DNA sequence: CTTTGCAAG
DNA sequence: CTTGTAAAG
């Protein structure tokens, strides 16, 4: 049966669990069975070589690790990822080594950027099971690299960028910097890299692209993250340049949020926004097995998102 | 039997509870039976007209009221006081009314001072069952009244001052202000009032007077609160002017602390200081039934202190 | 070690 | 509402 735009079929002829057709890939690719409890896609065949990437705005890594309810090792075991990308770690450079050591066994390769201009602000990281060929911190433009917003690693088949796009802020006081400086600089950097290898950008891009990506579009037209200016910048700097919004490509009609503000208890009422993305070069987008959201993982005002890539 | 300087006798011929002679008044006044669990003095005879005053540095009143373990009403019922004096409320003027309303039924008279120079800093209050004849906020010297450190109320038989003496601070950077400005100004103000009625000053006077009043005298000779300068100022400005340290008068040899720093888990190990006092004009000091400490009341780095005054 | 206010999201 | 800072004790 269908509920609004979502097809909901309880299937009983799948193996262990009552998989439910809850979401779908774009029409020509057919429907996809999701576990309705966890909203995870069905497991990819073990014989298919693949990589599993998770990205998460953790809103303060130290606070997250302090939570009784959260264990990084449990998350790693349950999700069985190869690479974990973090945003808003809010770490200072001096705290990174202690955190790195305590974090995840088996993930010996981790690359951290911290804000040096405002301590305890922003901060991104890529934590990987596989050792990358190269690493770059920031855009390589000192004007935009003091806030620890970007880290890039190079794998065999693609560049992976973990980014935290500047929030336009209360009163939209940073909107202009965001759309005239940051977004174009990041876009140019991605296009430069793309001449060498496909590029995947993940992270908190601080923009809900379309009305489907936010719970109350009408009421948020002048809210940071849903202004016309930011949505237009997202379109022209990233999508029009050939980077594919993999979640939307896989699930054209699915309402899927990745952020729920603390301020109005939004997670309970699902008053959310989709701010976190995996954008992929067209040349690698057809290797996406699925792009999905992990809405049951708590501990931050964002949920993690996942990407499974066939190699 | 005696343990060090303290006489400890378990008495079985007192009424309900196994009162223990744990402390004593000064020799000519004889020993006093204390409840060894609570360290409270024996109840005063109901036929004796008296007033019970409690003073407490609460180290942030809003945090205290948030604690599950603490209820202001319970404290009021258990201790059955007439007047409660608070220091370090850390309230802002704008928050006082909400707190006042929520605080204590039956205590309709409350008088609050807040720091206007540093928000959320210092702050004192007197909360009373009895309506006082007059109230004064501060010393009446605008140079020293911006930090909400003093409130005075006038009762029938005495003036009650609730004060929070400036901490000399890390590096003793405020020691000079404290001993050359604040202490003499407060002392002069008390002597002025005393021409009209006896004076009782209570609060966090931020000075451990003698070696008996601090757990590690040798190691704290240059620590704020135990410098020779502060101890000398305490002696000359208050004791030598005829104000009696009522706890020490009642209990000449008792080690009794009222403050244990959070920094070294001092409360568990009793690494404490006696910083909180009831000082009383000589003319009213003989009406003191007892001056005592309430070491079992948690919720702050200070414990409350009590004074029972015969009228 | 803990409180407060503040900036930021 | 929650994170992080800083000043203060």
Explain the overall architecture.
- The structure is a homodimer of 311-residue chains.
- With 311 residues, chain A is an alpha+beta fold.
- Helices cover 23% and strands 26% of the residues of chain A.
- The first copy, chain A, contains eight helices and 17 strands.
- The first copy, chain A, has a six-stranded mixed sheet with strand order 8-9-7-6-17-16.
- In chain A, a hairpin with a 4-residue loop joins strand 11 and strand 12 (159-164).
- In chain A, helix 4 runs parallel beside helix 5.
- The longest helix of chain A is centred in the middle third of the chain and has 20 residues, at 175-194.
- The first copy, chain A, is globular.
- Chain A starts with a strand and ends with a strand.
- Mean pLDDT of chain A is 90; it is low at 1-16.
- The chains hardly touch.
- Chain B binds a DNA duplex (9 and 9 nucleotides) through residues 59-60, 62-63, 88, 90, 92, 118-121, 167, 169-170, 206, 224, 261-265, 301.
> Helix coverage percent of residues of chain A?
10-25%
Mean pLDDT of chain A: 90
User: Could you say which overall geometry of chain A the principal axes of the C-alpha atoms support?
Assistant: globular
The arrangement of helices and strands of chain A along the chain is EEEEEEHHEHEEEEEHEHEHHEHEE
Oligomeric state as shown = homodimer
What is the strand content of chain A?
25-35%
Compute the number of strand runs of chain A: 17
The number of helical segments of chain A is 8
Rg calculated over all Cα atoms of chain A: 19 Å
The neighbouring-strand order within the major sheet of chain A is 8-9-7-6-17-16
State the distance separating the first and last CA atoms of chain A.
Answer: 35 Å
Q: Which consecutive residue ranges of chain A, at least 5 long each, have pLDDT under 50? A: 1-16
Main sheet: strands, sense, barrel of chain A: 6 strands, mixed
């Amino acid at each position: 049966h269908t509920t609004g735009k979502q097809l909901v079929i309880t299937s009983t002829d799948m193996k262990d669990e009552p998989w439910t057709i809850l979401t779908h890939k774009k029409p020509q690719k057919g429907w996809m069975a999701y576990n309705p409890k966890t909203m995870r896609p069905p497991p990819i065949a073990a014989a298919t070589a693949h990589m599993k990437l998770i990205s998460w705005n953790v809103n303060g890594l130290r606070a997250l690790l302090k939570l009784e309810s959260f264990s990084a090792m449990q998350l790693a075991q349950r999700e069985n990822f190869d690479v974990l990308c973090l945003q808003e770690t809010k770490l200072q450079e001096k705290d990174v080594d202690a955190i790195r050591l305590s974090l995840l066994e088996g993930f010996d390769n981790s690359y951290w950027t911290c804000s040096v201009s405002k301590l305890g602000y922003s901060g991104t990281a890529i934590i990987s099971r596989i050792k990358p060929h190269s690493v770059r911190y920031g855009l390589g433009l000192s004007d935009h690299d003091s806030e620890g917003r970007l880290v890039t690693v190079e794998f065999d088949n693609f560049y992976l960028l973990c980014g935290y796009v500047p929030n336009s802020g209360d009163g939209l006081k940073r909107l202009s910097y965001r759309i005239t400086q940051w977004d174009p600089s990041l876009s140019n950097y991605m296009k430069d890299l793309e001449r060498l290898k496909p590029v995947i950008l993940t992270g908190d891009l601080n923009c809900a692209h379309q009305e489907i990506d936010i719970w109350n579009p009408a009421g948020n037209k002048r809210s940071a993250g849903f202004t016309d200016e930011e949505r237009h910048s997202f379109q022209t700097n990233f999508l029009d340049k050939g980077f594919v919004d993999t979640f939307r490509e896989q699930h054209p009609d699915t309402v899927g949020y990745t952020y729920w503000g603390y301020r109005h208890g939004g997670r309970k009422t699902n008053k959310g926004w989709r701010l976190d993305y995996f954008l992929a070069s067209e040349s690698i987008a057809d290797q996406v097995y699925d792009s999905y959201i992990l809405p049951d993982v708590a501990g931050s005002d964002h949920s993690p998102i996942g990407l499974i890539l066939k190699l």
